[in-house]
Specification:
By secondary structure, this protein is an alpha/beta fold. The protein is built from seven helices and eight strands; from the N terminus they run ββαααααββββαβαβ. The protein has two domains: 5-52, no CATH class; 58-189, 2-Layer Sandwich (Nucleotidyltransferase, domain 5). α6 (144-157) packs parallel to α7. The chain is globular.
Length: 190
Amino acid sequence: MVGGEVNGRRATAAMLASVLIYAATTRTSLFGTCESMAVTDDNTLRDHLNRLAKVDEIWELAARINEQLVVDLPQILLDERREVAIDFHDMPHYGKHADLQPWVCRGEARPGTTRFIRIATIYVLRPGIRVTLAMTPVTPAMAAPVVISSLVQTARRARVRINRLWLERGFAACEVVQRIKALRLAAVIA
């Protein structure tokens, strides 16, 4: 149990999981999700998340998330070769916390900053649906080919056969093309 009490409502691990899943699937903020689900406030859940998610355990957490993402993939995704995409996702970072600095990537100015916490995801492209197969945290020291290799290997371990890889423009580089050739994949890079 996560513990803690706000306005007479207890914040539990189940509540935290439900709120995070709902927020992720509906693409709403933590604040909006807490309001619509009538649970404890978003700051309380953030405090609990900060206590639970230690920066030095991020790789272990990512591995556990990836295990859960592919645990019950529908057979239809495994029956034939699939179009798969890899994207970077940047969350603006305005903080000065020393433990987060190794995770802060620089990028084109957006929402008032050029500093971001970045993750990369690989997902199956299906009409009307997106099935995420894996994610990985990205550090400034990680080269794009390393990110691609890691995500493609995770998808292959899940028995997803890749027909073509779709990459956003952040991957447009010679070393990425070389890595794609080494992985024996066809690709489209924006």
